[in-house]
Specification:
With about 550 residues, this protein is of the alpha/beta class. The protein is built from 16 helices and 15 strands. Among the domains are: about 140 residues, Rossmann fold, CATH 3.40.50.1390; about 100 residues, Putative Large Serine Recombinase, Chain B, Domain 2 (Hect, E3 ligase catalytic domain fold, Alpha-Beta Complex), CATH 3.90.1750.20. It is flat and about 95 Å long.
Length: about 550
Amino acid sequence: MKTKKPKPIANVYAYVRVSTVDQAERDLSIPAQLDAIRKYCRERGYTIVEEFKEEGASGRDDRRKEFGRMVQAALAPKANVDAIIVYQTSRFFRNALQARVYKERLKKDGVAVLSVCQEVTDDAMGRLIEGIFELIDQYESEINGMRTMAAMRQNATLGYLNGSKAPFGFNAVEVNVGGDRTKRKLAPNQNEAELLKEVMRLYVAGAGAKAVAETLNQRSVSYRNNRPWTKNLVLKVLEDESCVGTYYWGKTDAETGEENDREDWIPIPCEPIVPKDLFALVEEIRAKRDPKKSPGRLSSSPLLLAGLLKCGTCGSSYTLESSGKEDPTGIRSYRYYNCSKFFRAGKSQCPGHRYPTERLERAVLEHVAEHVFSVEQVRELLKEIVEVNGLLRKRSTDQRDEWRRQLNEIDRAIQKWQRSFEASNATLEEVGIERLKELRKQKAELEETISKVVPISSPPPHLYKTETIETFRDSIREVFLSDTHELTRNYLRILIDKIVLHGDVAEVVVRTEGAAALMAQDGASPGTLTGPDSVLTSVRGWLRR
């Protein structure tokens, strides 16, 4: 897009922001910034169309809600705004690269970014100074981050809670540390503490994390903020060592979110709320049930239908549920597919439905081999493929024709410019050399675009032959009804988009492009297929219980 020329400024947006650190700086408060911006606009005759206020957001974050809304509004086709006014450049961004990207993007649409405290000229020197301001903003942000992290580590070392939420079973309470200064410490929340002990007792009694969540939900006992319990929430509160007297700060890296080494965690003493022997028993049971520490809990090879099965009630994926006694290798006797939402949170969130793994897998494979890819069904798939392929081919051809028409117009414009220049005694500047440069740039961009377009070819002729369809049908049947687990999994993921389970009915959604690709490649390895999944066909099949 060509950058618009600077225009007189009349209508503006005001953008103000404070972060957690800035809230203590009186001269950078929201009201102070707004007062300065309003005065600045009054003196210059600018009209503030809208004020955008961002509270508690980092200047390094480009996902700020109000910032994003403002940029979107400024770039809208009918936007009537000439500039964005900030108090300081650091209010706009504290990342030099991101600041430059957004400013250039806005500038292309004729929207300037101006600072009340750091006015610069719109020339080479002004842009240099503005870049220096942006680098200084980033430097200050990084230094502030280092200082803040050091202060938080020192605060945790002294036994005080930082900005994170209190762990389950505790409240964050204010304590006086001298004068009018206060800090936060952990104090037991009696209601949550009793509930935590109940969670542990249920778990130790053999209920399991999912069963504990189900029991609590059935009793209408919610987690914080009326959230229903889930398997993951139960495991989260069970593993937190705060309940036995030690809360750890700094478990994860603030920038990356990755877990830090345990030696980097800072212990903060707190009052124990559950007996240590109860917590130790919970840890012992968790270690035995943890699939990472207890090999054989899950199958050593991936589930045949993993990733394909969906619950027809809630839409969640199906996962493995095992029960019964373990054999010498650690594998449990009974294995089922069941809704993951039911498995995590119980019947109150989804009724679920158990399917024995072997019986469901066999029923699906037999149904797919016998019905989904019968000769008649494959012919119907081919009809849809041909229709869509023809439509896409026509759209592609029309688009290429339009690009070629634009290219011809540009060629004529260039030739007209050249004839005009040759017939006159004017200089290049007088006949508009910039216009010629623009035309040549547009021509180069169009030629590059056209060169990258790959025409959509017609399906190969042999694809429609009866013998091709029958050979394909027989090969699918052989693969699906054989005992070659990995090859069967590969074919399923090429040919099947998903299988939605409704009680004893399965809805099989087919990837028709995958079927066509296998047929067209005449025996090529399924691992090499990369065709799109542009058409889906639904087929219903009954599952025997």
